[in-house]
Design goal:
The N terminus is likely disordered. Among the domains are: about 300 residues, 3-Layer(aba) Sandwich (Rossmann fold), CATH 3.40.50; about 40 residues. Strands 3-2-1-4-5-7-11 form a 7-stranded parallel beta sheet, sandwiched between helices. The protein has 19 helices and 13 strands. It is about 50% helix and about 10% strand. α7 packs parallel to α10 and α8 runs antiparallel to α9. It is found in: Membrane. This is Fatty acyl-CoA reductase.
Length: about 500
Amino acid sequence: MAEEQARSEAEGDVLPWTVAEFFRGQSVLLTGGSGFLGRVLLEKLLFYCPDIDTVYVLLRPRKGLSVQERLQKMLDVPLFDRVRAQRPEALGRLQAVEGDTARPGLALAEADARVLAERVSVVFHLAASVRFDDPLITAVRTNACATRDLLELATRMTKLKALVHVSTTFCNVGQREFEEKLYPVAGDWRSILALVEARGQSDPVALRALTTKILGPHCNTYTFTKNLAEHIVNHYSDRLPVGIVRPSVVVATAHDPFPGWIDNFNGPMGLMVGAGKGVVHTGYSDPNSYIDYVPCDIVVKGIVLCSCEVARKGLGPPLVYNAAQSEMERITQGRVLDIAYEVGAEMPFSDTLYHPCGGVTSNRLLFLVQFFFFHLVPAVIGDALLSASGRKPMLIRLQRRIYSANMAISWFLLQNWNFLNNRFLNLENNLRPEDREGFSYQVDSIKPETFFRDALHGTRRFLMKEPDSNIPQAIRAYKRKRLIHLILKTLFYATISWIILSKLHFLLFVE
């Protein structure tokens, strides 16, 4: 088996079946189906695999909605328009299962667990907490314990062909270049899970005090627990057919089902939206470093193809795929921000707080000075005006959140990363001709300038819920605020010049 796997990777053997054939009659379990990646994966499976049996989506009740109601709400977005138009019967193949990855045993009822064990043949584990500042117990419970509990459930699945775990390229530390392989574990995962589960209940304060020591070289609980999860997957690889896909910074779709779909503020889109709304005017990052971004639809294609390869491989060490930028053209963080301002002038957001302007710097002191003058001072003035008008102050609180978020991700933004991904690219090489349309990455056609413009347009339409019809009105408002900005800027520099000239006059002419 190992020799066959090595030969397959070296020669790029074509899959023995099309993707649609592989999923014909198969039942799938998906965790994280309500997230960005999860919904795009759902759409992909429903549209390109018409004979799939059932897709079980693990969900928890939330905000008064049952899991079935949440599933229907998840589907009520433009992402699924082509499924509704061309394959409406496919939506009937979805079935919500009540569970919670933040609770022991996934909070599954035994009856549901029994059905999944009897019917599921492919598992996609996407659920995770992606917050960098989660307490250790929360991150371990959601990212590591849930992975273990899902793998335990998978050992009961009599028809299992493939289990794909979605990790992150940033889960390893100590260097700037990473191959598609497992790296040393952050610690003995069994001991860490046992410690967190025990102390989290009996002595959470002591656990918080121990967090820094437990994390070791990891800068946050997210990368630490995702590293643990990879080794938990590896532990089960002698009993289960498993694979690991590591995306880098996941951004909007490039092509499929259409350019620019996005439904969250993660990654560079959050900075671009904040800048476009006139809320963010400075950031702590290196403007000359590159963003290792990867469009969401490319990641999803890789996840699906990974399941096919895992099914062909069978048991053994997990196949690891870095779903990273690789051959796509690179773009610096500074240029991404420039594009945000350019697109902001062409199709600005409505109700901006101030005229969009600013930049990023890798100088910590300069960032703090700029944050004080461009963020905190206006926030204090704005909150005072809100209080005077009888409204609730909120700008200082907002700026505190912006600062905390910037500090949390600064470790990723101040350096360049290189994630080798030959194996990930070879997944595309193994496609059968019939699958080219639906599962080819098309990386050569992705141009950063066009991509981020489409992504910002999608952000405006899908994330901010602003129709294109209000663009003319938004442009007029943009021009008014730009004029106000220029007037205030002129007054500011005129005042500074007057002060300096007054001091010089005093020093030179007054005895």
